[in-house]
Amino acid sequence: MPIVKSYLDENGSHNQKFVNNILVPKLLNFLKHHKNLPTNRQCQNIKKTRAAKTEQDMTDDFANLEENLMDISPDRILNYDETNLSDEPGTKKCLFKRGTKYPERALNFTKSCISIIFAATASGEVLPPYLVYKAERLFDAWCIGGPRKTCYNRTKGGWFDSYCFEDWFLQVAIPWAKSLTGPKVLIGDNLSSHLNVRVLRVPTK
Fold it and tell me: In angstroms, rounded to a whole number, what is the distance separating the alpha carbons of residues 111 and 18?
């Protein structure tokens, strides 16, 4: 408890029940002997916008998705998403209700990282990954030993920008789409770098 430590420090007090005037160790010991109280868990960091989503929002999203995919073959439905290979802004242990399956902490900051897009169809086909390094230049040695047909790029912060997403779209998504007949569906999130006018205008036939 910061306020307790600050008070004790300012008054020159050194309570033997605390460690460096911090109550936490005793608090954790207290929680250990009271199983009905919140538990101390390592939490996953998520953004506040994601944390604000309600169960009804998720239900409505899936209902809308089901309606739009009604007549589309699974091998023509492609889902893509980005992930971070080394993004770690630091995790903390926090108090959660016992039984919480996915403890999370909402925050809006993160460190730079190496990013990668994975894409797979609803029928199980996995397309080549697309990896973005944090660098000013892309070195040949960084493009050796990856999965077959992996695409590589780089940005200053290691994040996907609109140029990298457009390049992924042209090198990975378009060849997949052109190899199939009939309507195709590409499912992703609304990350700003994905909202690209040039991408929307690219012919897929």
Answer: 34
Contact (CB, 8 A) for 107 and 72: no
For 41, other C-beta atoms within 10 Å of its C-beta total 16
CA-derived radius of gyration, the chain: 24
Side-chain half-sphere of 157: how many Cα atoms within 13 Å? Answer: 7
**Which is nearest to 119 in space by CA: 83, 152, 145, 162?**
83
The candidate with the shortest Cα–Cα distance to 151, out of 136, 163, 164, 161, is 164
Half-sphere exposure of residue 35: CA atoms within 13 angstroms, side-chain side: 1
Task: Copy the structure tokens of residue 144.
Answer: 């050796």
Domain boundaries of the chain, sorted by first residue? 38-201
Global pTM reads 0.61
Q: Among residues 148, 184, 157, 147, which one has the least CA distance to residue 169?
A: 184
Please give the Cα distance from 113 to 155 (Å, whole number): 10
d(CA 134, CA 84): 11
Q: Per residue in 161-190, pLDDT tens?
A: 889 999 999 999 999 999 999 899 999 887
- Over residues 19-44, mean pLDDT: 65
